[in-house]
Amino acid sequence: MSDSQISFDEAKLAKYQEIQEAGLPMYPAHFEREVTLAEIRERYAEIGHDPSEEEITTAGRIYSIRRHGKTIFVDVGDDSARLQLYVRKNDIGDEPFDRFKKFVDAGDVIGITGRVFRTKMGEITIWVSTYHLLTKSVCAMPEKFHGLKNTEMRYRHRYLDLIMNPESRETFRLRSRAIAELRTFLNSRDFLEFETPTLQPVYGGANARPFTTYHNALEQKLFLRIAPELYLKRLVVGGFEKVYEIAKNFRNEDIDTHHNPEFSMVEIYAAYHDYKDMMNLTEEIVTHLVLGTCGTASITFDGTEISFERPWRRLTMEDAVKEYADIDVFATPVEELAAIAEKEDMEKWEAAKTHGDYLALFFEHFCEDKLIQPTFIYDFPVENSPLAKRHRSKPGFTERFELFVNGMELANGFSELNDPLDQKERFEAQDQKRRLGDLEAQMIDYDFINALGYGMPPTGGVGIGIDRLVMLLTGNDSIKEVILFPSMRRLSQNGDGDGEGSAEDEKQE
Fold first, then answer.
1. pLDDT score at 436
2. Residue 95 phi/psi, 5° resolution?
3. CA 436, 437, 440, 442: dihedral to nearest 10 degrees?
4. Where are the alpha helices (DSSP H) in 85-144?
5. What is the pLDDT of residues 289-346, one digit of tens each?
6. For residue 14, which phi and psi values (nearest 5 degrees)?
7. DSSP class of residue 40?
8. How far apart are CA 347 and CA 364, in angstroms?
9. Which end of the chain has fewer surrounding CB within 10 Å, N or C?
10. Rounded to whole angstroms, how far apart are CA atoms 142 and 275?
11. Which helix (H) or strand (E) holds 394?
């Protein structure tokens, strides 16, 4: 099925038409639901075979129907639980029963009133006295016993995934709780949440290829932000000392299990802090979220136990390469480093020129996937850290760290560069790379340089990837499992996934 096709079911459409012709309600605007299904299960946990004295009114989506002559058993579910219904012709009347039997299908949403009892099989059940069709489904549901297993369909039609797979709903419920807990944590420590521009005239704050658009009224090119960093630091210049933003960022990059072009992160800045302070804060935040969502400081991911008990390991990038690759980068001539990189067929190795370039290259190639337990890698070369402050005691390095868990980068932080002349020089070096064809190099943000010229206090900053953190918390090894609507290649009319639409589609866009 292409993205432009509608998958209405012919049999259900025929029922829709009959219901409409009979003048029966199909999509009422309101229904007074008294209790959720989970509340019913809790309230009547000790119920026996005799029905409850009081009637309850609830609602849910039908997942399956089992017809047995003058009785029908129905499984319904809502956001909280699933429950069985017992519908009997003698109780609801001939005409309502016949309408139920003829018109109501799996996928429909119904409201019911009835008494609660426990069947001989031990199942808490509602003995229905009246029902109301609240929403008529006109698309066929997946098979009731097999659910929705096709991975691509789950991503493309997330609503169907959420209907059919409780574990998917739980993943996104946990994600929502984690973000709420993150806000509570930061707010309780006097951080202020702000919103900065998503459309930016100059992109920056990270090394990434941007998405480009055009504003007709302004008659100028704009970019979807790759990070909120430069705007948040403008706020620190303006006098807000502790700021953060939970931001959607957009990077025009490859899609894989750890990358999606649209992703979420939190960026945090604190005046009078440095990168060591931000490592401590990152430890506090992540450990707090792991404990709050999982109830324990250890999680099991793909069969490996990962402990978030503090303190975490801290290792310089230089020492990491020595430990995992047995290479002392700065004691090795550049020519030998180039030969190693070529032999290992490292990505973009030909662009490396300095020891600092090779240190970053070797770390990515030899070390990242070895860092399973939470590990801070710190002291990055200045060549690949254009926004970090130069190291106070190690020439050629910056005060920068990254957090790795299960071989995946989870956070990136600095002692923020606040020297406007140094920042101008590094932006110019980045811009030169960009002009020479490096699509991920940064532009020169002259207004940001100007802001630094008014004076930004010593500041620490960190960005934490929310999607990747949720991957760890939920045990998912693909970022698409934790993003509700991940980026997918557009399907063509014949469903071959070539991404091409019709001419009419293009006009509408």
1. 87
2. -65, -50
3. 30
4. 89-92, 94-103
5. 999 999 999 999 989 999 999 999 999 999 999 999 999 999 999 999 999 999 999 9
6. -65, -40
7. H
8. 10
9. C
10. 51
11. none
Q: Is 433 helix (H, G, I), strand (E, B) or coil?
A: helix
Instruction: Give 243-300 as a DSSP string.
Output: EEEEEEEE-----BTTB-SEEEEEEEEEET--HHHHHHHHHHHHHHHHHHHHSSSEEE
Residue 5 has pLDDT above 80, yes or no: no
By percentage, how much of the chain surpasses pLDDT 70?
95
Residues in the chain: 509
In angstroms, the CA 264 to CA 486 distance is: 12
Per-residue model confidence as pLDDT tens digits over 457-474 = 999 999 999 999 999 999
Q: What is the mean pLDDT of residues 3-13?
A: 87
Question: In terms of C-beta density within 10 A (0-12 exposed, 13-18 middle, 19 or more buried), how is residue 100 classed?
Answer: buried
- The pTM (predicted TM-score) of the whole model is 0.91
Angle of CA points 280, 314, 296, to nearest 5° = 60
Query: Strand 192-193 and strand 242-250: pairing?
Result: parallel
Amino acid at 247: A
CB atoms under 10 Å from CB of 5, counted, come to 10
Provide the residue type at 282 as one letter: T
pLDDT tens digits, one per residue of 476-500: 999 999 999 999 998 865 555 554 4
Amino acid at 22: A
466-474 and 166-188 helices, crossing angle to 10°: 130
| Cα 361 from Cα 367, distance rounded (Å) | 10
Bridging pattern class, strands 82-88 and 124-135: parallel
What span, in angstroms and rounded, lies between the C-alpha atoms of 386 and 398?
A: 9
Q: Which residues contact 175 (CB under 8 A, 6 or more apart)?
A: 466, 470, 474, 482
Cβ partners under 8 Å of residue 410, min gap 6: 286, 403, 404, 464, 465, 468, 469, 472
Tell me the sheet residues that pair with 41.
none
Q: Tell me the β-bridge partners of 369.
A: none
Query: How far apart are the C-alpha atoms of 412 and 462, rounded to whole Å?
Result: 6
Beta strand residue intervals within 119-271, DSSP E: 124-135, 192-193, 199-200, 212-215, 220-224, 242-250, 262-271
Element containing residue 402 per DSSP (H, E): strand 397-405
Amino acid, single-letter form, for residue 441: A
* Rounded Cα gap, residues 427 and 476, in angstroms: 37
- Specify the pLDDT at position 307: 97
Whether residue 261 has a cis bond before it, omega within 30° of 0? no
Report pLDDT digits (tens) over 29-41. 999 999 999 999 9
Give 278's pLDDT tier (boundaries 50, 70, 90): very high
Task: Check residue 101 and give its pLDDT.
Answer: 96
Please, are residues 118 and 41 in contact by the beta-carbon 8 Å criterion? no
